[in-house]
Design a protein that fits this description.
Blueprint lengths: L5 H19 L11 H8 L10 H12 L21 H13 L6 H22 L6 E5 L2 H19 L9 E5 L4 H9 L3 E5 L7 H9 L3 H6 E7 L11 H11 L2 E5 L24 E4 L1 H4 L7 E5 L2 H8 L33 H10 L1 H24 L3 E3 L7 E6 L4 H13 L7 E6 L2 E9 L7 H9 L3
Parallel strand pairs: 2-3, 2-4, 4-5, 5-6
Antiparallel strand pairs: 1-7, 6-7, 8-9, 9-11, 10-11
Helix pairs in contact: 4-13, 5-13, 6-7, 6-12, 8-10, 14-16
The protein binds pyridoxal-5'-phosphate.
The site of pyridoxal-5'-phosphate (PLP) has 14 residues, from helix 6.
Family: Belongs to the group II decarboxylase family.
Protein name: Aminotransferase class V-fold PLP-dependent enzyme
Cofactor: pyridoxal 5'-phosphate
Length: 457
Amino acid sequence: MHKIDMGLIEMTLDVMKYVIGRVSEVEHPIGKPKKYEELKALVGETITEKGVGGEYAFNLWKEHLSKANVPVDHPRNLAFVPASPTRAAIMFDLITAASSIHGAYWMEGAGGIFCENEAMKWIVSLTGMPEGAFGVFTSGGTSANLSAIVTARENWRTNDPSHKGQKGLIITSIGAHSSVKAMAKVADIDVHLVDTEDRLEASALRATIDGLSPIERERLFAVVGTGGTTNAGIVDDLDGIADICAEENLWFHVDAAYGGGALLADSVKHLFKGIGKADSVTIDPHKWLFSPYDCGAVIYKEPELAKQAHSQQGSYLDIFKDEGAHGFNPTDYQIQLTRRVRGLPLWFSLAMHGTDKYKEAVERGVELAQIAGKMIEESPYLELVREPSLSCVLYRRKGWSPQDYTDWTFENHKKGFALVAPTKWKTGDGFETVSRFCFINPDTTERDIEMILETMA
Ligand SMILES: *Cc1c(COP(=O)(O)O)cnc(C)c1O
């Protein structure tokens, strides 16, 4: 389709130059959004019958549009769950895009899927799940959670046909990520929330199950534990929950979308004891495994069950399933058919750097949280809400109202200095507004933390 075209070569070089510039910058602007009207006034009409030309459009991106984003890899962007993709992974993301690999079936994507599976084997090994456990890369934690919950539900219905017309029920805690509730809605499943944002203990789960009505107990098919809550980095009692799930014949899903990377860190790995007993696990490489967006992963103890739930049938798809196409077909294990081989950038970066580098980078995030915790304890005007957990720190500025936190966040962001957002923490019956750090980027320095805390004085 493409003839050699000098204009195209020039554009390619311009794009590469821009990308090299972006990934070699020590510090790029923190960025801030603009209103639609402002952006429209700056760039005007861009989609026209004749096209505005590559150079012109690219300049609009460089001058105006790129600046209206808040990139998550800034070392003082500590809001939500930031990210910090490796240069190697970013570069290979370009190769992934340029290679046009349809990552659904081995027949079309063998080379790319081979690489993904090598990376996946390593991720599975971190969980300690038994021989035979395996997974696929997804667009993120949300679709990984959905894929796992649907697999659990289909398995529950297959095992007992009386469940066919019954609405399923799962138990999780209010510390679980919003996507668990959102995906339960997609799959038309009810959610019973254990009322704790702190560690979900086996005893609380036991009491919750015992408190269900006989009908509810009949509808209950799975428990979702969290391996590192998004808000506070709390790891549930995975070991105890796994035992109860085994006794009660319930599917045990662990959502470690954010926290999963911490399985690499010797200092905190013990908190995840029991994760190897899960039926399914979600881990997002685009959070704490330094992959570019978007890249999630779902792992199953028995992948065959996921295949029974997700394998798509269609006469035009049969060719991929014939003898000659034998191999691993990622589409069979999650909700997507056509998919980018989104684990490919992670594979290249892992292969290039080795897993020790990943371990060090994750440990640094944990260490930064400990360092921040110490600074907060030593400050006369600050206070920890709870001990730092994984790479999350919740803390309060003594005497501040919720509005003070909001003003402070916007002030620091407006100055282009930092993005640190407040959150809420459950205290008894109410919610307290507090400040929160989440560390991912190993380039964040102690001085960065110190400077941010100083702006609260
Ligand atoms: C971020 C997160 C998710 C959602 O993942 P996406 O990749 O944003 O879809 C799910 N669960 C937990 C615990 C998370 O931290």
